[in-house]
Specification:
single chain; about 250 residues; alpha/beta; Metallo-beta-lactamase, Chain A; seven-stranded mixed beta sheet; 8 helices; binds the ligand Nc1ccn([C@@H]2O[C@@H]3COP(=O)(O)O[C@H]3[C@H]2O)c(=O)n1; binds zinc ion
Length: about 250
């Protein structure tokens, strides 16, 4: 079965030339949206993907570039299409997502008082690979991002690692490739400055070349073009281009 990935956007939280770093996975039998940021519905509109075609949404962590579009997605599906969208989410994110992000805009007396009133909630257990839509199995891997905030990277179909926003974790990347058969890595990157809550390009450049060869960069700032020649064998994912994951597994990327 073929699996494709199309980034709705590849931008950092403050990027203006790129949409939010959200992704559409398509197995041919089902579509999974990874994160639903503020720009998600506009990007999906431009890609010609109607919201009801998406079988499930998966959330990595709570920042606006990853969850800021859920209010519109939830309202559109309930009001215009008469059904709740499926929301796959780790248990620790449910309370803060509703109480701190969505409740203000979505609550309605006697009608909407909790996440489950708007979404079909599929509660995920980190560390347990779970089939989310036909042909797409995901394991949540807790990774560090902001102190005190839970965040989960993704290991997809036992072959593709998709980083959430995360600080540099070379041990995890080594383990995934050498012990778990990971063939390609889509990794967030911060191009300039210290990587206090993200992973810097310099940190990724310190990895063994066999790991760098598997990495495609995403979640980058507007000055990405200036860094194309500084990224070594790593290349930048292009937003809205459709990649077959087999194509991502080729080591010669440039
Ligand atoms: N301690 C923090 C917290 C947040 N930030 C910035 O805010 C953005 C929120 O979305 P993000 O994509 O995680 O990127 C974060 C940083 O740019 C940051 O730089 N340092
Ligand atoms: Zn982000
Ligand atoms: Zn974040």
């Amino acid at each position: 079965m073929s699996l494709t990935i199309q980034m709705l956007g590849t931008g950092s939280a403050f990027a203006k030339n790129y949409y939010n770093n959200n992704a559409l996975l398509d197995s041919g039998e089902g579509k999974l949206l990874i994160d639903c940021g503020t720009t998600a519905s506009l990007a999906l509109h431009q890609m010609g993907v109607p919201l009801p075609e998406i079988d499930a949404i998966l959330i990595t962590h709570i920042h606006a570039d990853h969850v800021g579009g859920l209010e519109e997605f939830g309202f559109q599906m309930n009001i215009l299409h008469g059904r709740k969208p499926v929301l796959c989410i780790a248990e620790p994110l449910i309370h803060p997502l509703w109480e701190n992000t969505l409740k203000g805009g979505m609550s309605q007396q006697g009608m909407i008082g909790k996440l489950e009133d708007v979404f079909e909630v599929n509660v995920l257990t980190p560390g347990e690979p779970t089939s989310l839509v036909s042909g797409i199995e995901v394991e949540l891997i807790p990774t560090r991002h902001i102190p005190g905030k839970d965040s989960y990277s993704l290991f997809i179909n036992d072959r593709l690692f998709y980083s959430a926003d995360m600080t540099f974790d070379p041990d995890l990347l080594n383990q995934l490739v050498h012990e778990r058969g990971c063939r390609s890595i889509l990794h967030e990157v911060q191009l300039q400055g210290a990587g206090e809550v993200h992973t810097t390009l310099d940190e990724l450049l310190s990895l063994p070349i066999q790991l760098q060869e598997r990495i495609r960069l995403m979640h980058y700032s507007d000055d990405m073009e200036q860094f194309k020649e500084k990224a070594g064998v790593m290349s930048f994912l292009e937003q809205q281009r459709v990649y077959n994951i087999v194509e991502l597994e080729r080591t010669e990327q440039k």
